[in-house]
Amino acid sequence: MIRPRIALPIPSTDPEYSSQAWHQYASAIERSGGEAVEVPLGEPPAATARLIAGCQGILLPGSGADVNPQKYGQEPVAECAPADLARENVDELLLQDAHNMGKPIFTICFGTQMLNVWRGGTLVQHLTAGAVNHKAGRKVPIAHIVAVESDSLLGEIASVDEITERDGSLLLPVNSSHHQAIATAGDGLRVTAHTPEDGVVEAIENAPDGLGGNFVVGVQWHPERTFDDSAVSKALFARFVAEAAAWVPRPTSPPTI
Question: What CATH number has the domain bearing residue 210?
Fold first, then answer.
């Protein structure tokens, strides 16, 4: 298998956050057989477009920022963190390129929220405290359980020995580090996992008639942090990288006369 090039944006304009986060995503990509390509923030769009043209897949990582709520028709609430416009601009360029070319897309946490908003969906700006601590943070390896739809692409990937099944769903233990969540799924996206206790959406993917390529998967937790310990985390990255390796450019239509 060739080593596909995976476009991986710098997570944030906050250098402290990015310095500890980017290499963890890149390591998971590299150990799964891919090559992580750093996409800087704040570059001219034409430069970013040239860089990602040579990539076979995109991974949108987490961030300490929140998606600008005006993009989904809301004013920010007090708990909403400031937007990171440079990161949002890069994500949108990557999503447009991947959509146009049918490239595999894998998104994590903030990246999943960006995917959903870019597809016309909305977010819950702040999750109130309840039975589940969604903002547990990176020091808590297992924060709660998510129920994954067994008939989904995510369910297919997550069907490993460590996972139990109940009422048609796979029960997957995950970490958690977010205070926002998907409210309504964007165009062509289906919800494929939720937290059983409170119904918070934990994963989305392309619906059968969805847009873009065949592999569009977004999770709300952080599999890059549990890559060493979780078979599901390894399987997610392995499948994504394999899809990128198998990707071929869409043929361009000849001009009409």
Answer: 3.40.50.880
- What region, left, alpha or beta, does residue 77 occupy, with left being phi > 0 and alpha being psi -120 to 50 degrees? beta
The angle subtended at Cα 160 by Cα 157 and Cα 163, nearest 5°, is 110
Provide φ and ψ at 111, rounded to 5°: -60, -35
Closest of 127, 65, 58, 123 to residue 92, by C-alpha:
58
- Residue 215 domain boundaries: 5-246
**Residue 224 bears catalytic tag:** yes
pLDDT in tens, 92-107: 999 999 999 999 999 9
Q: How many domains does the chain have?
A: 1
Q: Active site residue: 88, 109, 134, 144, which one?
A: 109
Contacts with 167 (C-beta within 8 Å, 6 or more apart), sequence order = none
Any catalytic annotation for residue 178? no
pLDDT at residue 1, rounded to an integer: 62
- Helix, strand, or coil (residue 38): strand
Q: Is residue 104 part of a domain?
A: yes
Q: Considering 55, 178, 222, 243, which one is annotated as catalytic?
A: 222
Residue 151 amino acid letter: D
pLDDT score, position 14: 92
List, for residues 182-204, the tens digit of each pLDDT value.
999 999 999 999 999 999 999 99
Q: Tell me, yes or no, if 109 is annotated catalytic.
A: yes
